[in-house]
Specification:
Helix content is 62%, strand content 10%. By secondary structure, the chain is of the alpha/beta class. The strands form three sheets. The chain has a six-stranded mixed β-sheet. Helix 1 packs across helix 5, helix 7 packs antiparallel against helix 12 and helix 18 (502-514) runs parallel beside helix 19 (532-545). The two termini are 37 Å apart.
């Protein structure tokens, strides 16, 4: 059976290493953001003190305490000048806090975007490294959600939430310290309300995390459904299944809505708990503080500072509750991203991999077996030799293992037993890049990209000169229709090449394979889904471009089998017959049955 991609030994280790690397690269931004954060906290702590000076020492003319004796020159200026300076101090503190907040926001946003950029690059690269076995078992929409959506939550965590959490924690500690200095009894009442409040936040936050995990899973399923329908919209419309697909999509949206509402209710409970405690704490502080003022143990200005602090104190706690919910969502996203990064590709180059350069093209399968995970073997004990420069056709019923042989040759999958050799060397000894560079492939699904014709042809050889691109197009019988396009080779194609006919797309795919000048050319049913005229052009092109290349064609149309040196008949993952077209017809076996069934 095919070995699945293996998870790393320590879950999340690659994500943590990547984040640490990004943080190390952005040390200056982190230092600036931290200094700005400390400045903002200091401004928050200082903000109510000009009001205390105004109320206690300017309006009520109370003498300055020893700790504020350095402000005596201010009072000596007179009432109105002192009021003016104190009011200006309020404005200056606000301006400084605003400037520092901007600096913190900018530097932390830069950090968050940088980390997100690295994460997306690494995720995209990792998804391309993982084998077809992984992608066959994964939902594309789920993977898109992880790359685009989950990384956004992580960006917000690093660009905003982390420093906001630090700011609120510092503010909480600083304000409590000043409150204890002013009146420890009153500060103790306020501090006593915090532990049970944080306990409630922690308990509710666990519920939020569970519902968020479910919500993200539903979002992935919803994206997969949308991607599947949009990529098959012609089929949906042709069969009149719009209503059916709307119902299926609606069920995914409703499931996502339900989980989202459960998450919102849990998050709302956190906010409500904080609001109730905040209101009660503020009311109690005002009541007890007024008693302290009447008893002469607290000045009106100090009570004003105290009440301002209490109001400000519960705001960080309230924001911490919201941040706890956001961190729960980000934690779920981090787990989902780490699940991808932690996977070890099941197909990798050997440490001492060889470069395959201009091979003769001899291919040998030695007792090769293969099966998809959880399924029956597709190839079992298969052995065959294809000589260099030989033209071979693979025929057989669907599921016989024809396409699997080509996938194994390209190392898109690894055999569970046996080995495959090119020029006498096991292909696992070659680097995958060099192996695939020397094998031109034309798939049955003629995939093109929404870029220019030139870029599509040069996809496997980006540095191909114009002459090589046009030569490949001529060899594939595509040059004639390309020059008739509005901008010729520079014409932009629609998504998946939708602006071309099936035959034109297939000829471009053949040109894309030929421009690499490969030693081995493999074609998977190249004429299965195109019109007879285009099919004939493809046959003529293949006959012209053989030129000593080893040619492997998975054949659907058996009308042109006489053009091949050998025909291999596959059944149940084994070669049951082989020989020339005429010889196999004379044997009156499995090959003749296939021919008769095609013409029935």
């Amino acid at each position: 059976m095919n070995t699945p991609n293996r998870p790393a030994v320590r879950p999340g280790s690659r994500l943590r290493a990547l984040v640490r690397e990004c943080l190390a690269e952005q040390r200056l931004a982190i230092v600036l953001a931290t200094l700005a954060l400390a400045g903002v906290v200091l401004a928050d702590v200082l903000a109510p003190w000009p009001l205390k000076i105004i109320f206690d020492h300017i309006l009520l003319a109370r003498p300055l305490p020893a700790t504020l004796a350095w402000l005596q020159p201010l009072l000596a200026l007179g009432t109105w000048p002192a009021l003016g300076v104190s009011a200006a101090a309020i404005a200056v503190i606000a301006l400084v806090a605003g400037a520092l907040s901007y600096l913190q926001l900018y530097t932390s946003a830069k950090l968050g975007h940088r980390i997100t950029w690295r994460l997306r690059v690494e995720l995209f690269a990792q998804l391309q490294r993982l084998s077809l076995a992984f992608h066959r078992d994964s939902r594309s929409g789920e993977l898109i959600t992880k790359v685009a959506g989950d990384t956004n939550l992580l960006r917000d965590m690093f660009s905003d939430w982390a420093l906001t959490l630090g700011r609120h924690a510092l503010t909480l500690v600083a304000m409590l310290a000043v409150m204890f200095m002013l009146n420890w009894q009153l500060a103790l009442v306020v501090a006593a309300s915090l532990p049970p409040l944080l306990g409630v936040i922690f308990w509710l936050n666990r519920r939020v995390k569970a519902t968020v995990r479910e919500q993200r899973r539903h979002e992935g399923r919803m994206t997969s459904r949308l991607n599947e329908v949009l990529s098959s919209i012609a089929l949906v419309q042709a069969f009149g299944r719009q209503g059916f697909e709307e119902d299926r999509f609606r069920s995914e949206i409703e499931a996502n809505y339900d989980s989202g509402m459960r998450s919102t209710r849990s998050a709302g409970a956190i906010v409500k708990a904080i609001a109730v405690v905040s209101a009660a704490g503020t009311a109690l502080t005002v009541l007890l503080g007024a008693r302290e003022v009447l008893a002469g143990r607290l000045t009106p200005g100090e009570l004003l500072v105290f009440v301002t602090y209490v109001t400000s104190l519960y705001k960080p706690v309230r924001d911490l509750g919201r941040l706890a919910t956001k961190f729960s969502r980000a934690g779920v996203s981090a787990q989902r991203v780490a699940e991808i990064l932690d996977l070890e590709p099941d197909i990798a180059d050997a440490p001492d991999a060889l470069e395959l350069a201009r091979p003769s093209g001899e291919i040998v399968f030695e007792n090769v077996s293969f099966g998809y995970a959880g399924g029956r073997p597709v190839i079992e004990g298969l052995s065959l030799r294809i000589a260099a420069g030989e033209r071979v056709a693979l025929v057989g019923a669907s599921g016989a293992g024809k396409s699997t042989l080509v996938n194994l040759l390209l190392r898109l999958y690894e055999p569970s037993a046996g080995r495959i050799l090119i020029d006498g060397i096991d292909i696992r000894r070659y680097s995958r890049a060099s192996l695939r560079r020397e094998i031109g492939i034309v798939l049955q699904d003629n995939m093109l990209f929404g870029v220019s014709v030139r870029e599509n042809i040069a996809y496997g050889r980006p540095d191909a000169p114009t002459e090589a691109i046009e030569a490949a197009a001529r060899a594939a019988r595509a040059h004639e229709f390309i020059v008739d396009l509005p901008q010729g080779y520079d014409t932009e194609l629609g998504e998946r090449g939708a602006t071309l006919s099936g035959g034109q797309r297939q000829r471009l795919c053949l040109a894309r394979a030929l421009v690499k000048e490969p030693a081995i050319l493999a074609m998977d049913e190249p004429t299965a889904s195109i019109d007879p005229v285009s099919a004939q052009l493809i046959h003529e092109a293949v006959a012209r471009v053989h030129r000593g290349r080893t040619l492997i064609v998975i054949a659907h149309d058996l009308a042109d089998m006489a053009a091949y040196d050998r025909v291999l008949v596959l059944k149940g993952g084994r070669v049951v017959e082989q020989g020339t077209h005429e010889a196999l017809l004379r044997e009156r076996g499995a090959y003749l049955a296939l021919v008769e069934r095609r013409h029935a």
